[in-house]
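Lest this sound abstract, we let one protein speak, letters for residues, whole numbers for local backbone shapes, and leave readers to judge:
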Amino acid sequence: MATLDGWTTLAVELAHTRPLDETRGVAVQVVLSYSTQTGDRRTRVHTLTLQCSHRLQETFRHYQAQTLLAFYCKKMYCAVLERPLQELREELQTDLTEALASYRKHCCSASVSAGQLVLPQHLRALPVYINSLRKSEVLLPGLRSSVHQRLQQRCQVLSMDTCCTATHFYPQLLPLPLSVDSSNLPNPEEALRCCGASLDPRGLYLVHAPLTLLLWVGTRVPTSSLVELFNTSCFSSLSSGETKLLVLENPLSISVRSLINTLNSQVPCARKLWVVKEGDTCEEALQRHLVEDKSPNGGASYTDFLYHLHVSSVRLLQ
């Protein structure tokens, strides 16, 4: 209990040995026994009732991509101490392939052609999540990642809730305005796709993940923006690495620092801001978070992974 807090999510896999009654549904009970600070013993009972159905279409309709990601993340990260990493990566791919094949077989109309990619409406984000999980440092170590770093990241991710887990495996890539007025304040809802194509050398971008906060600076950012945000007029004199933004009394500096404070309040642990300059050697730290691209440790791009899933799911049905 000492390791649990309000940010923690637990994953439980349940199985049934007898047919389920659709009219009655199912009930899951969890009993929590603990001692209070004063030494009193308490027992708390949680009861959750769920609907059940033998129709796969209804089942797929109620799936949630982020919940499945959190479940698979905890399942695989717990298994890394006992099973080969390659086996875990293949299991993730196999489970997703079989799910897509099942949806294609039982839930799609006969007019769907063999070359057409079909994804359940509520699981369209699942392939990119699973691909990011498969090529994470824990399941696909890079040359520069140590065992200690991987174990630390494993423990940190295992303790995350569902929303933080989703943001960890698909970070928010936020474009920052080069100048600020009332009409173009930074907005976390305007996140871009996590790929290198989203980065413009003339722009500033913030990468927000539960364990990381990166500020990418393009080579062609206007001098006025560099002065307002970093108090320097020269891109080459800007230092990469861990930093703390200067407290400057101008709209751009105030709005960016306010956005960073807001994002920091949404994560369970304290983070340090890293400035990453375009073309700098430390840009690999950013590339690891552009999960739709091929990763530095050799993980497949989202496009390649999705194509492989499609081909494999079609073959299963032949």
